[in-house]
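Ticket opened by: R.M.
Priority: normal
Category: complex prediction / small molecule

The reporter submitted a protein together with flavin-adenine dinucleotide and asked that the result be attached to this ticket for the collaborator who will pick it up next week. Submitted input follows.
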Amino acid sequence: MSAQPPATAESKRRHQVVVIGSGFGGLNAAKALKHADVDVKLIAKTTHHLFQPLLYQVATGIISEGEIAPATRVILRRQKNAQVLLGDVTKIDLKNQKVTSELLGHTYVTPYDTLVIAAGAGQSYFGNDHFAEFAPGMKTIDDALELRARILSAFEQAERSSDPIRREKLLTFTVVGAGPTGVEMAGQIAELADHTLEGTFRHIDSTKARVILLDAAPSVLPPMGEKLGRKAAARLEKMGVEIQLNAMVTNVDRNGLTVRDADGTTRRIESACKVWSAGVSASPLGKQLADQTSVELDRAGRVKVLPDLTIPGHPNAFVIGDMAYVDGVPGMAQGAIQGGKYAASCIKSELKGADPNEREPFQYFDKGSMATVSRYSAVAKIGPLEFGGIIAWFAWLVLHLVYLVGFKTKITTLLSWTVTFIGRNRGQLTVTEQQAFARTRIEQLEEIAATVQSEAAS
Ligand SMILES: Cc1cc2nc3c(=O)[nH]c(=O)nc-3n(C[C@H](O)[C@H](O)[C@H](O)COP(=O)(O)OP(=O)(O)OC[C@H]3O[C@@H](n4cnc5c(N)ncnc54)[C@H](O)[C@@H]3O)c2cc1C
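Result attached by the on-call engineer:
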């Protein structure tokens, strides 16, 4: 086990802040400490800051992964008090104020005075993790690229198939979960089939592809309310998306899904390409915190933090963003951004002598929520205002451009959107064998390595 490189004489004197995660929460916490007299060590298991709301556009070939995942160290280049460290945090020791992270077989221990934990959430398969192999979720760049490969290669295989039953299976795309991500994915697969790929095949007609959006709940976009849910559903149906509600997916395999309807009957959908956007589960680091303290977790594994976003008995350990459960704060980018800024403001005031026991509680400012359905159509809910259509779509466009990190990223994204939304083309339809198969192979290698290790140990 190797320790971090020795601290400099200057950094020894300074308050050490360790931030876990380079997502919306972690990055904003680190950035808000730019002028503070602290050393910030941001440890994350990816080298980039990921703008998750646009992952579905990477998966459907509208934009490239680089446009939504700028390198964190480049973003923080000018912030001299911040150091970006690549590593998978495996242990948080609250008592001894240390964080352990791993990078390619090396272990590093980083001490802290204040800790900001923003490790986000992963996909939840509600206890059926084996579904993941056949229905990837949408949480990472790897997920999006793998899905792009699966979607496009289903069309390619259908073009070569002379078996009508197999062709039908290949041209049936299922999206599980009718929340914002599911709605966006279903809409974009339909547009890809109906517009971008139209006329590009000779044996199949891509516009005949079936896109099915399923949910166990009785409505589309439940967090956005009945009216907007109905609007989004109507638009999707107009585009040919089949919406199946009260439909509980009970099994997923290579060839399709098993669905149980509200009346208890079970049926099968043959579908080669499946997307899972049905549930989230907070980072397993939350469980470690619960094991060390009296803090509770909710059903999604989120840490039930105190009103100042800290863990009981540990006022120097903040948990923010998708990892934290705070009543009234949704698992959305704004919750994480505002949480990150709040933690930084507490750190800064306390460096100036403020008492941690007298912190103002975290207050979330609801800026609203939006989801796109297709080009020129979105739904938006901002305070009491609920609206849909082209105005909501433009509002969505502007807002996402504002929040994308980096000027160059904004320009290239705008250019890609112009190509896709004004014309029919998409600039990112490249699929590589690595995208389609590498992750499965890596997982198999990891399983083999683990078996070899356990056999050697026994
Ligand atoms: C497909 C999709 C679409 C979305 N659309 C919207 C939207 O339209 N609007 C909206 O407001 N919100 C949206 N969200 C939600 C929003 O993206 C999240 O609420 C937000 O990203 C949460 O920020 P976070 O910092 O808590 O976590 P994340 O942004 O997930 O960041 C977590 C960070 O922690 C790192 N990490 C995780 N585990 C470890 C570990 N063990 N060691 C080291 N690092 C670790 C990760 O690499 C990452 O850098 C969407 C989410 C998804 C998945």
